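User: Good morning. I'm curious how FE2/S2 (inorganic) cluster would be positioned relative to this chain. Could you predict the structure with it bound?
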Amino acid sequence: MTSMERDRMIDTAVGLCEKYRNEPALLLEILHDLQETVGYIPEETQPAIAKCLNLAKAEVHGVVSFYHDFRSAPDSNITVKVCRAEACQSMGANRLLEDILARNGLPKTGTSDKGVTIEEVYCLGNCALAPSAMIGERLMGRVTADRLQSAIEGVGA
Ligand code: FES
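Assistant: Good morning! Here's the predicted structure, ligand included:
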């Protein structure tokens, strides 16, 4: 995180504290709003929240780590969809799926401990470029296990 990003997140947290009149009893509401805005509760914002609400840093940290709803890191889950419908199957989709599961340490479709979720789907509308797969919103055609794995690693797995 750059210092500019950090400052922006701290400003967001301070702004939310002000929205809730710096009321310590509203800490949960502030944290929920912050997670909704930023995607998680950055460690760097916790001292600023504590200061605004006149709480100890440990109290804020304790609340963030106690509630399972709060994340203290960005959600890095990557979803990969591998097409197994007819056109893709005829171009080796079954083997592709097996390879990509093995490379990510998964015996079957699901989520690896690195946050990679692999799903099988039936037609991505890209049959002419079979076999097809999707990573997040990115559609890929004529996919090989090597290309797909590089793309997965390229988005941070
Ligand atoms: S059959 Fe795979 S994209 Fe259509």
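The beta strands are 78-83, 110-111, 116-121, 133-135, 138-140. The chain has seven helices and five strands.
Let me know if you'd like a different ligand tried.
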